[in-house]
Amino acid sequence: MDLVFGLSWLLTVFLEGIHCQGVYAPPTVRIVHSGHACNVEEERYTERVYTIREAETLELTCLVTGHPRPQMRWTKTAGSASDRFQDSTVFNETLRIANIQRHQGGRYYCKAENGLGSPAIKSIRVDVYYLDDPIVTVHQSIGEAKEQFYYERTVFLRCMANSNPPVRYSWRRGREVLSQGSDKGVEIYEPFFTQGETKILKLKNLRPQDYANYSCIASVRNVCGIPDKNVLFRLTNRTASPSIKLQVEDPIVVNPGHTVTLVCVTVGGEPTPTLTWVSNAETLPAKAVLNGGTLTLPAVVTEDAGVYSCVANNNVGNPAKKSATVIVRALKKGRFWITPDPYHNDDNIQIGREVKISCQVEATPPEELVFNWLKNGRPLRSSERMVITQTDPDVSAGTTNLDIIDLKFTDFGTYTCIASLKGGGIPEISIDVNISSTTVPPLFFSFLVPPNLTVPRGKSPLVTQEGDTVELQCLVSGKPKPIILWSRADKEAPMPDGSMQTESYDGILRIVNVSREMTGSYRCQTSQYNGFNVKPREAVVELIVQYPPTVEEVFTEIRQGLMRSFAMSCRVLRAHPSRVLRYEWRLGSRLLNAGQFDLQDETEFNVRSLSREGYGEYTCDIINEAGAGRCTFLVTGRAYPPEFFYDTYSPLWQNRPRVYGYKLQWTQMNPGAVDRIVAYRLGIRQTGQQRWWEQEIPVEGTIQTGELITYNLTELIRPEAYEVRLTPITRFGEGDSAVRMIKYSTPINPHLREFHCSFEEEPICMFTQEKTDDFDWTRHSAATRDTKYTPNTGPSSDRSGSKQGYYMYIETSRPRVEGDQARLLTPIFNVAPKNPYGPAGHAYCFSFYYHMYGKHIGTLNTFLRQKGQTSSESPVWSLSGNQGDRWRQAKVGIHPTASFQMVFEGIRGPGIEGDIAIDDVTLEEGECRDPPPNNLRSLAPPTADHIWRLCVTLPLALFSQRR
Q1: With pLDDT > 90 as the criterion, what percentage of the chain qualifies?
Q2: Most buried residue, 375, 434, 540, 623, by CB count within 10 Å?
Q3: Per-residue burial over 88-102, b = 16 or more CB atoms within 10 Å of its CB, e = otherwise
Q4: What is the DSSP letter of 788?
């Protein structure tokens, strides 16, 4: 019987597993990009690299699939992706970093998990590009004259600029371009230890012609549109490193409130050095006034003391530096203590024995400290029985001692310790010590009372409630009265103010807004050196903090359909006091149930049949003497949000130009939790628009858990991006919505049938720039392109006639020179296998529109590049020279035999009026048909494509306005 039951159980589990495999799916992720990317490419080991210019906005979108809906998170190099940007984006599909900085580059991971299988992880490396202004520094060879640059001296000009990617340097002397070998007296090289980041120009044995203006140009070849930067340095026979002089004494000792002026002057250096002031405190005081080489510190205070340095720099040799120390005179922290006879273990002082009165202050500068002693207001001199000593200020803080040998009744009185500074101007510190008595027992006199600590009756244990203000008290007695130090006695924890120890002059510790963590034992003890120098006394005060109950769950959302039953429970975790706990259940303000806890730690409330009046917020308050803890339950009939499936990435061809459909797929989260879903409200709007176009999708029958629901979106226009919102509807009303973006990119099929790109989207249909060429193609529109300096070249619109439309072109302005080449590569296309007995190769028609207008137009070439091809490339199409201010179409038949890509090569002509542009690149299977005549766009009749666009976009626009 057990065997039959076991086999039946295994069969059931197996069948349920098959069923679950059809419903649940482990997570998968895919990273797509948007925003201001310069380039996205695949490198070795299939690593994706996303390059972006510094200060642009990074946007990465993680497309997630799986059921249940996976939880996803962005991280960076195994850490948080949050680098001073909104933390909320870390858990969103789109990671957005505005004004990205160079330190925020690195590898970003998208991780998704839903409890099924291993988490899905994809990564992309973000490379931030930048170019700082270059700096030129000049040095002479070691051992040669440093004051000036004489003939027959070797000089090094070093240029450096921080950049990514690595910067390339070029040098000019006046208008002459310097290169290796162009001048026997010049060497240009990149030191190994700088890995090519520094370019050094070496001038061997200076000649008269070497005294000139030198320009260093730093370039990253217009990568990411970053322009070249340059710096100029003038080398003369007077060029010299800086030298300076401080016109102040060192150190400068001043009283508080005085004004300090530090003057720094240059005594040498060509070009004229720049003077700056720095402080050992890293930043100058906010009130500091700088005027050239003069630094003024008005109304100085103790915090302004420190070392101030003048630094001179003219990029020749090493910077010059001179420093001065500012000392602000001060006296502070005076205190005293009395030490009984050190030869007897007794806290009392007896007549005939020795007593020491010690006085201590802190002084700046310590060598100016002077002490004087008075007895009853009269100066006291050191003698055999009254010994006055002073410690060495270099060993410890300034301390003076008065040793009274063989104490007598005549020594009663007031002893005064006076501390001052020799220079005057600082108020002196005076400390009085009273030695007196009211009783004189035989042979013993107690004129000082050792300290004693006690806790007042009823002050320990001290009971208070959380949030109150409480005072812990220790009574202290003794002459003189010592300072009390408070600390935690039961654990190594800080005091309420954050310190490990708190001082009190009256023995009271005041705690404002006391919390439950402050419960425990507090120690009060006398300070060792405040009055009587004896073993510290201590006492302990117990503090008990009462607090309201801590409960769970603090907040719970319950989604239920009408006429159903459910239960809510509230449990006590902690409470003080924990006895006599009461509970109260309420719906809104209406009391439902109340009672007291006996031995249990939770209370439960049951709803047998939910009515419409039963929707709302339920609360359970658990109450003790200190207050109440509350459990909150929000009971609603809102349906959970749908969960989109992201398995359809590309639009579907509708056999009409530029018309695509999209298969929208989703499952419903917990469809059985509430009433049956009767419909979905579908909202669609174009990105950047305010109004939604909405419609209802009716639902027949009951939706099952994991059931895949499909709805076809039609009449969508590529390359628009759409925001789709889906909201379930039940008898309760609208549920939670789910929103996703639909972004169209050019569909790339594994086996090519058709490819079309009009460069309207920034990823430019996965075109890439050749790395070994001289410069890059640029994506632009006529509305944004600046034709101020080259008005007689380049297109005035894209191929369709729109000034807002985009195209690709080569910018031939400076620093481009004649013959410079720019190459643009299409994606790689796979060729479907052919019948082995049929003809070799495939036939494809490659077409594009070109615009070659300007008197300096160079050459436009197209190449066919096949996988495994080793022979040199020759163009399959080529055209040179001015072709007029119009777009023309080119068609060329190709017959690739392996995976291939097409290459556009633009070659710069003899001048700046030579911009070449391309648009609407198409690749179709089959031989080319006859190209249409190249009529002027303004005279051409409307095409079917134009008519279709008008028929589709106009109704959508009118419908959007009516909404």
Answers
A1: 32
A2: 623
A3: ebbeebebbbeebee
A4: S
